[in-house]
Batch of 3 targets.
Target 1
Amino acid sequence: MTQTEAKQPSLLKQPSSVWAIAFACMVSFMGIGLVDPILPAISRALEATQSQTMLLFTSYLFITGIAMFFTSWVSGRIGVKKTLIIGLVLIVAFAALAGASSNVNEILGFRAGWGLGNALFISTALAAIVGAASGGSGQAIVLYEAALGIGMAVGPLVGGVLGTLSWRGPFFGTAVLMAIALVAIIGFLKLPKDAPAPANVSLSSSFKALRNPALLALSVTAVFYNFGFFILLAYTPFPLEAAAKAAGLEFGATELGYVFFGWGLALALTSVFAAPPATRKFGLRPVLFTMLGTLTVLLGLMAVFHAQLTVLIVLVIVAGLVLGVMNTALTEAVMEATDLPRNVASSTYSGVRFLGGAIAPAVAGPLAAAAGPASPYWLGAGAVLVAIVVLLLAGHKLSHIGKAHESREEIAEDVLVGDA
């Protein structure tokens, strides 16, 4: 052990500011999958169609995506702490309002406001935790990474448990947890005086970034990939419930929460532990093609076996393993493909890919009603095939990615910013 390593502070010995941000990050990432287990319950309680309830993802993701184009501009003008606080206030307010709603259209509107708050908070949280942590950026990134993984995995589980009490439970639960995080951020977040100020960027910088051919190609790939991703995430609770009913089983919010907890845990584990060594050993483009091809097959299998409960559950969890690697590899590819500033490249890419995710739930419901329960999965598989074609056609623009990797810390930071 070197003298530097011996003196490095323990990961767990962090200022209160860091734990406040990490807790808030965990709860914020929980919000992505929180509503998944309660979609059927909301549909029944509010007499809404599957299409209407799946729009809870669309309104959230659409506003999050649009806001991502402007968050770096906002934080550059009002500062990190103010941006965090405004984001948290919006999440608390709109999560509580969603829980108090009397119809699905109200929830849709409040989920949009929730998405705006989430975009402001998450896009700024990494910079805040890096500035406040002891032990350097490596320590901060590990903590942020842990918060992301726990939030993605626990969100569906919490949604399922609170959803057994009422479909309103997960919304109110999130509001309470984020209110606690807000108080902690206000009371404990003190960024170092020598922390660098957020870079000022123009309001149009994210849109101008799409002129870069490599970033544009990867962003279009991400749109079609995320279409398949959110077909799986937003639509699957309904086939799961139908398959359980056909088998004579009761499959409510708790059971759905367990399934998507397994999915989220698989995604978190492979994004952290499998993706980095895979991309270092095989290269970025081979990993991207392999994961996209595997996801296409999995979505096709879901279409074929959508009525078989056990098979569908296994396929969902296996898909989580694939999605974790894919998310990490695609974001790393975005960061290596251009010489644009990281915050601009990541916010542009994140904004575009969230818009792809927003479209999927809006299409899946009407398509299932018109063409049968297998059809959304076939469409998702087709969308991922398009992503493969785009990646193939853009090969000459992306031949340089994966050849000169950054340090592990830089790769992790890029991936986490992109995942926001």
Target 2
Amino acid sequence: MDIRIAAYAVVTDEDGRMLLPRLTAEFNNRWTLPGGGTDPGEDPNDAVVREVFEESGYEVTVDELLGIDNMVIPGEKRLKRSDRYGVPMQSLRIIYRAHITGGELTPEADGSTDDVAWFAPEEIDRLDRVELIDTARRWAGLLN
């Protein structure tokens, strides 16, 4: 079994909107949290800051750890183009709350996401999104 450690951020603005990037077509064009996999030896706190910048153009500071989500992906559900297709993968997803300290909204170029936007809670409910968004919203006190 493979293991992947990733770090994600819940970033909201003064109007209660949440920052969400959209995964590319390879990942079914679903909306997700800003963040992603840690590099070997990289601190997850540093990884989330790097990933948020790559996917949104914003510089952030981490405020707090909200929780760690665990998911096992069966081997046949992994990307078929992966050289690890068929091998199960445990995904540990570390969720932080963070706030913007600089930068400008800019979609990622040539990465795993192709758009980024701010969404009000009622808009998020209508999005085609990964389930991690709702987990993070609960942990952040943004869902009842």
Target 3
Amino acid sequence: MRDSYVFGLMLRTRSSIIQKVEKLPEEKRNVIPEGFSNSIHWQLGHLLTITNIIVFQFAGKESVIPENYKTFFASGTKPADWTGEPPAWDALIQELTQQCKLIEDTFAGKLHEPLAVKENFAKAETVGEILIMNISHESSHSGMINAMLKILG
């Protein structure tokens, strides 16, 4: 598995999502469209948080985001349950942009290394496999974001 291919695909997927949401008016960022349980703000925080968990933590690395992000954006969370102010939209966009470079800097040349967390939902065994799983996860959410953007107009 070539590093350039995996990191390039990851960057294209993430950049596409950021480009889609960058111009979303502030008043629509936290709207939960009918048929959905989360907002686009949540979607962005979720991508950042889940990437941190499955890429960095499964590989045995320290978390690179604040611990409280999980309370807002982990799987199973939703804005209706928030009991505080979530991380700001602009901060999430900035962190999402920086996260891809951090992943590449951390894992370049290490795609074949085994994961520290052997028992994981993805049944991934290597860094490269978990990166592919993460790209798949982001692609799925990209589709949800597309649908939400159409509904939000």
